[in-house]
Each structure stands twice: as structure tokens, then as C-alpha cells.
Recover the amino acids of this structure.
């Protein structure tokens, strides 16, 4: 077959004739796929060519209707990452599917990352029949919805501070017919976990890796007095990922007079050259 007629298989191949060798060197190796929207990092050296990159991405991945570039870092307590459409339909609301759940995600107005999907699946397998789960920092609902579909839990209370995310979470709960399993709550985990939901949960998930330490006390108080499990996510230094989170857990438990037992320490994903995201699963109960 004439090689000139071969269909290009990947982004780099399509861009070979459109970017210089130097420009190709700046192209990132991967991008996030959030349903029908691709989210890619465009380095400053490629900014003038962002439309070319976006259109090339659409041409090799017909399932994408829109390509967005990341236009800033995660910021504020809602951890929102600004994005800008660079090719395709001018729409930032993705329909994302994970572990049999459909979710609407308004990129740029809520936090969302597909990169913790394996964690949602892992925890679903740990949840036992009848458990009541505190799904803290719930965003548009990926953790509680995946649990509702894939675990034998009784129900999850999904607490989230961003009203826009809670609105989408309500829509996503309806979309997945999970009204009996997931209860969305607009509010602050620190206020609610230690008061209204004190002593209520068999398990709590804390996917707020930047600040979760400041919520550990309230989260421990939300666990049933007979004991339960907490999944504590943190960003940590790559060369010593677990000392910090383990110390924080020990100190908080000792302040509250609680006993803890580490069940699992795990590196979740690398974040930057010096930073890694980790999770510590631990059991906590009255001493
Ligand atoms: C890293 S995101 C995780 C979102 C979601 N679990 C996911 O995986 O897509 C953290 C979420 O916590 C929310 N958040 C931040 N501070 C909070 C607080 N004090 N109480 C409740 N939610 C909070 C943010 O708005 C954000 O949606």
C-alpha cells in the first residue's frame, strides 16, 4: 500500500507536517479524556499553534467533540482548574462514563479528574454490605456514584462546598437513578462531619489531597464509635511519601483519644517531579 495514503494513527503523526521538529518536541505525551472532551496542556512555546494541535487531536479521536487547553492551575477552595476551548464545539460540559455511571461535568466550574477512577473502583471492592459511607469533598459525585453502582453499601452522604458541583451532583444522581443510595449535601466537611454526621459512618473517603489534613479531626469524629475506615489522600514529597500523613493521623487520633491501625499505604499517582499523591487507609476506633 502507498504509505502516503496511510491514515495517521496518533496526534504526533498528524502534527508531523504541521509543526516544526522543535515545536513537536514541546508537545505533551498525554492528555485527559473526560467523555466527549479532551483536556490537554499546551506549553507556552506552542500557544500560537494551539488550534492546530486541537484540530489534530479531533481528527485522530472521533469520539471527542471538543478540545480544551488547561489555562491555569487548580485554585481556591473549590480546586477549580480554568480551561479554554481550542477546537471543536464551544461546549465545556462533558458527559463522562466511569464504571457504569454517567456523569455531567462542567469543566472550568467544578473540579474533576478521571485519574482517580482506579481508586473509586478499589474502594468499591472494600465496602461491605450495609455500610454507611461519608463521601467527603464529593464534587459532581464520582466517588459516591461509583460506590452506589459497584458496592453493597447502604448509602453515601456526599458533602461538597461548591454549589455548582452540588447542582451537577443532583443531576448525576438522577441520571444514574441513585436517589436511594446517594444523598447530596451542600456544606463544609469540617462543620458537618463533627456535628450533624458525628458518629454516623462506617467509612469516610477524603479526596482533597492538598488540604485533607485540616479535616482529619472532623472526619475521625464522623466515624461510628465502634470503629470504621478512613481513606486519607495527601500530596507528599516523592522521597518520603508516608511520614507526613502517618504523623498527622497519629497526632490527630491521640488528641481525640482514638486508636488507629494502618491497613494500607499506597502511591496513587505522580503529580510533579517532587510531589506524589498517596492514600493511607486506616481503621479508627475509640481507645
Ligand atoms: C480534589 S476535589 C475532588 C472532587 C471529587 N471527589 C472528584 O474526585 O472529582 C475536592 C472537592 O472538595 C470540595 N471542597 C473543598 N473544601 C471543602 C469543604 N470544606 N467541604 C466540602 N467540600 C469541599 C471542592 O469544591 C472540590 O469539589
Amino acid at each position: 500500500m502507498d504509505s502516503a495514503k496511510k491514515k495517521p494513527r496518533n496526534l504526533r503523526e498528524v502534527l508531523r507536517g504541521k509543526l516544526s521538529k522543535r515545536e513537536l518536541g514541546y508537545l505533551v505525551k498525554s492528555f485527559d479524556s473526560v467523555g466527549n472532551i479532551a483536556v490537554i496542556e499546551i506549553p507556552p512555546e506552542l500557544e500560537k499553534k494551539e488550534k492546530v494541535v486541537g484540530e489534530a487531536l479531533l481528527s485522530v479521536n472521533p469520539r471527542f467533540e471538543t478540545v480544551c487547553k488547561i489555562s491555569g492551575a487548580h485554585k481556591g477552595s473549590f480546586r477549580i482548574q480554568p480551561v479554554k476551548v481550542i477546537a471543536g464545539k464551544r461546549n465545556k460540559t462533558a458527559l463522562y462514563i466511569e464504571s457504569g455511571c454517567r456523569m455531567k461535568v462542567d469543566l472550568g466550574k467544578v473540579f474533576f479528574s478521571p485519574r482517580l477512577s482506579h481508586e473509586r473502583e478499589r474502594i468499591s471492592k472494600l465496602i461491605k454490605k450495609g455500610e454507611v459511607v461519608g463521601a467527603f469533598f464529593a464534587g459532581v459525585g464520582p466517588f459516591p456514584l461509583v460506590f452506589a453502582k459497584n458496592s453493597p453499601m447502604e448509602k453515601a452522604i456526599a458533602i461538597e462546598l461548591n454549589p455548582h458541583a452540588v447542582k451537577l451532583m443532583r443531576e448525576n444522581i438522577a441520571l444514574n437513578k441513585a436517589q436511594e443510595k446517594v444523598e447530596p449535601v451542600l456544606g463544609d466537611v469540617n462543620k458537618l462531619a463533627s456535628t450533624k454526621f458525628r458518629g454516623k459512618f462506617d467509612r469516610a473517603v477524603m479526596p482533597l489531597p492538598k488540604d485533607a489534613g485540616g479535616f482529619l479531626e472532623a472526619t475521625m469524629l464522623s466515624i461510628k464509635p465502634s470503629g470504621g475506615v478512613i481513606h486519607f489522600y495527601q500530596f507528599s514529597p516523592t522521597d518520603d511519601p508516608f511520614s507526613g500523613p502517618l504523623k498527622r493521623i497519629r497526632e490527630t487520633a491521640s488528641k481525640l483519644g482514638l486508636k488507629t491501625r494502618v491497613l494500607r499505604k499506597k502511591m496513587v499517582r505522580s503529580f510533579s517531579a517532587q510531589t506524589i499523591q498517596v492514600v493511607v487507609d486506616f481503621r479508627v476506633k475509640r481507645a
Observations:
- Residues 113-286 form a domain with the Rossmann fold fold (CATH 3.40.50.150).
- The pocket of S-adenosylmethionine is lined by residues 77-79, 111-113, 116, 137-139, 142-143, 159-162, 165, 188-190, 207-208 (CB under 6 Å).
- The chain has a mean pLDDT of 94.
